[in-house]
Design brief:
Radius of gyration: 25 Å
Order of helices and strands: EEEHEEEHHHEHEHEEHHEEEEEEEEE
Strand content: 35-45%
Largest sheet: 6 strands, mixed
Bound molecules: adenosine-5'-triphosphate
Structural class: alpha+beta
Oligomer: single chain
Number of helices: 8
Length: about 350
């Protein structure tokens, strides 16, 4: 099936006041399916907002194309595109009721009153705000205001909804609740969402696919699990989730396993397939890939913090070198100063060629 959105070789440059140029989009290719939840993730200034604005039509491209449902969007002004945006700042009209805020676009478009009211009622029902029609934004909670903004964005039945950090103003609990609500709503509406966030956990829990961007270009696209378990390079590995990176040299092959060590003498075992003695690699292990074992990397716990039911440890290897971050479930008897051995399964190591 053809994708809903097809972005090809999108380029956008900005002149900086300092007299230089910035490539905000540097050859972006991206396909998005009709019912996909895709998150754009990347450091500040990597081009996420510029990409959203180019899709919605508030930014023009210097090169490349954006097609939606097979139609080139280039010549279409924002209001003619079947796309709507939810902003972090909601931008609700404070003097209007919830119902009028939500129905405003239909009002402007001249939709008759009875039809408009039916659409507003149906949309408020979808976002769980039935019964709040006559309230003003100032009489709502943060989460309810967010739902009004959502209702207003979906009432015209866009095929694609762009969400620019819509949850960042909410406190942690409400934010987690809204994450679930948003995902449920997206399933129910059956439309595509492109979501921008700075919060990796949010991206990992909500997305069908994550797009990791850096300096105007896409570094990796994939389902959250793939991006987390198989990052394509160091940048993605370090940007998504906590990680331990080891620059290792293969010492020898022993049956199914390759024995490797870092310059400091920390020893790791990898699957032997494709490995050669003397080869230099980057080995990646997530904190939960380590276990406290009878044998393994000897070290001392230098920090131990409980987060929920997980114990997060920093372990300084006996041989020296960077601290290793470890997360374990049952940390009974382990605290700062405890001597431990860190074990790991060879197959849990993700290998990047080269160092
Ligand atoms: P953040 O996460 O901080 O919101 P972002 O990934 O959304 O960042 P963009 O807002 O897309 O990043 O900006 C990309 C780059 O383009 C940045 O270096 C920014 O300074 C620059 N930029 C964006 N808009 C303009 C503009 N109108 N004029 C000049 N430079 C701009």
């Amino acid at each position: 099936m053809a994708p809903l959105l097809e972005i090809r070789a999108a380029r956008r440059e900005f002149a900086t006041p300092e007299g230089g140029k910035i490539r905000a989009l540097d050859g972006v290719d991206l396909d998005i399916g009709a019912n996909e939840f895709v998150t754009l993730l990347g450091p500040s200034g990597c081009g996420k907002t510029t990409l959203l604005r180019a899709i919605s039509g508030f930014e023009t491209l210097d090169g490349g194309t954006i097609r939606l449902g097979g139609v080139d969007l280039t010549a279409l002004p924002p209001f003619r595109r079947p796309v709507n945006t939810v902003f972090q700042s909601y931008a609700l009209f404070g003097h209007m009721t919830v119902a009028r805020n939500v129905g405003y676009a239909l009002e402007v478009a001249g939709v008759p009153r009875a039809e408009r009211e039916a659409e507003v009622a149906e949309t408020l029902e979808k976002v769980g705000l039935a019964g709040m029609e006559t309230r003003k934004p100032g009489q709502l909670s943060g989460g309810q205001r967010q739902r009004v903004a959502l209702a207003r964005a979906i009432i015209a039945k866009p095929r694609l909804l762009l969400l620019d950090e819509p949850l960042s103003a909410l406190d942690r609990n409400l934010r987690q609740q809204m994450q679930i609500e948003l995902k449920t709503l997206q399933d129910k509406l059956g439309i595509a969402f492109i979501f921008v966030t700075h919060d990796q956990e949010e991206a990992l829990t909500m997305s069908d696919r994550i797009v990791v961007m850096r300096a105007g270009a896409i570094e990796q696209i994939g389902p959250p699990r793939d991006i987390y378990r198989h990052p394509r390079n160091r940048f993605v590995a370090e940007f998504i989730g906590e990680t331990n990176l080891f620059l290792v040299t293969v010492d020898r092959i022993d049956g199914d396993t390759a024995l490797t060590r870092t310059a400091d003498g920390v020893e790791l075992v990898l699957p032997a397939v494709g490995r050669q003695p003397g080869e230099r690699l980057t080995a990646i292990l997530r904190p939960a890939d380590f276990t406290i074992a009878a044998q393994g990397i000897p070290g001392i716990v230098t920090r131990a913090v409980y987060l929920g039911s997980d114990l997060h440890l920093s372990v300084t290897p006996e041989s020296g070198g960077q601290d290793i971050r470890v997360t374990i479930r049952d940390g009974l008897g382990i605290g700062e100063g405890t001597n431990v051995h860190l074990g790991h399964e060879p197959t849990r190591v993700h290998v990047l060629e080269g160092t």
